[in-house]
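All the exercises in this workshop are built on plain-text protein records. Sequence and backbone structure share a record, each on its own labelled line. The question running through the whole workshop is how a given chain folds. The record below serves as our worked example for the rest of this section.
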Amino acid sequence: MSALWVAVALVVAGFAGWPVTALVFKLARTIDDRADAAKAAEAARGAVEDPAADVTVDDIAAAPDAALGTAGGQTVDGELTAPPVQPTPAAPAGPSLPTQRILRGGAIIGVLERLGVCLAILTGQPVAIAYIVAIKGLGRFAELKETPVAAERFIIGTLTSMLWAAGTAAAVKVLFLH
């Protein structure tokens, strides 16, 4: 009967952990998006309140009589204003550069990581978790060093994955194996 509970714990920890990790990633992204929106709103509020940021650009096509008889820049009520901005032509649509996926193979590594953590706890060898983390960190070191987004994703995913696996293993061990 113990082998059955160990198998159940491994399946739940290994394969039911990816939706939990995906949910945590989604939550983290939502929190980041809200923080970015708050910063943008604060910057917009600051720009509205800052009188030095008030810049007026008059379109000569909208008010052709306002710029008559002037040489150089446009004037409106005796003030010099900036000429209308002409949009720059768009770059020709050519073949796009291939995008590099961040942390390829993460789903497979995550399943293996959760299986290893669960097995380490069920067999009473929690030191093995340190080996799992070390192997994972060394394998991803180059990517993590280059990309801060990848490093953040790595930390969030690893902690979520390990907590799920450890919690599953501990629950099965306490409830069914003792």
Notes: Residues 2-26+105-176 form one domain. Strands lie at 74-76, 79-81. The chain has a mean pLDDT of 80.
